[in-house]
Every structure is written in C-alpha cells, then in structure tokens.
Amino acid sequence: MFAQVIDGTITSFPKGNKGIQIGDYKYPKAIYSLWTEEERNAIGIYTVIIDNTNFKDQTFYINTDQTYTFDSEADTVTASYGTATAKAIADVNAVDEDGEALLDSDGNQIVNYGLKTNYKNQFNTQASGLLLPTDWYVVKATEVSGYSVPSAITTYRAAVRTKVNAMETAIDNCANVEALITLLEYTTDSDGVTSRPLGEFPNEVI
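User: That's the sequence. What structure does it adopt?
Assistant: Structure tokens below.
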C-alpha cells in the first residue's frame, strides 16, 4: 500500500497498478516495483508501514479504522489502529434507534447473543455431533427387546454430556473477554504438550 504526501500532508493512496502524475511529471507504474523506497520518497510516494500494536483478534474485539500519519522527521507514513473494543460477552436485548425493544414476528424480544452464548452453542453443537454416531445404539435398545447399549458406549455418551456441561459452566464463570480468551487459548508447555484450560471432549467410541 502506498501513500502520496504533498507539503507534509497525505493526499491520496495510489494502488500501485498504474502510473501517476505529480505536478508536470508523469511517472510509470514501474516506480512501485522497480524504484527504491528512497527514490519514491523523493517524489512524495511512500510505502505505508502497518502498525498492528493495537490490533486485536477480531473474534473477540472490534478494531477501529486505521489512521494514517506522516512523520516528517522519520520520513515515513504509518497506518495504525486505535484502542480496540471488546465484543459483548453477555446477551443483550436488541433495541431500535429510539431505545425501544425489537420484537420478532411473534412478539418475542430479539436477543443479540454475546460471546458466552455463541461459544456454548458451538460446543453443544460439537457434543451433539459426537453423540450422533452412537445414537443408533440407544434407538436399538428402545426397539429391540433384550438388547442393551454396551457399557463402553453408555460411559462415553455420559462423558460427552458431562464435559459439555463443564464447558458451559467454565464459560459462564468468565468475568470478561480476557478471561474467556484465556479459557479457550491453546498453550504448549515445556514438555511439548498443547492444551487449553477448557479441556477437550473424550475420544470417540463407536
């Protein structure tokens, strides 16, 4: 990404795919690929330096738009972000621009899910997917007299439900977005073992 600076002010952002006219001079697009940075700077064209210091994971935060700054002493143009805002961790009732409750076609309050609900739904969906391959054991047990679900299957299915319930509790106990990130984040210890505080579902049994 490039920026054009005239008299110390950023005036445009050339895309680098075509030539540019500066004053009475026309320059070919080759200046963006063949010229050195110093040569481009001499005519007021700068490669934009991206400063991601304040940029945060968009899964959990809303980042600001970038602001562009020309530093005449360093002779650089930098794009930087402002302070990111954490997304809502709890559910919020939807309202219109007048602050009135937004209702669905049945007259029920529309709710904007927060991060906690979104992640709980995600893990419940995962748990459902893990149970699905063994559902037929349960169906058979209800339809075939004298048939019982193997104990290994029963134990596994109970473990999946226990784990997803524990996951939901751990998520609900998060006081803020930072705590939720810590709960979900994988880290590798000195022995090379990668894990997260939330833990994992039991290994599948079929």
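Residues 124 and 164 are 7 Å apart (CA to CA).
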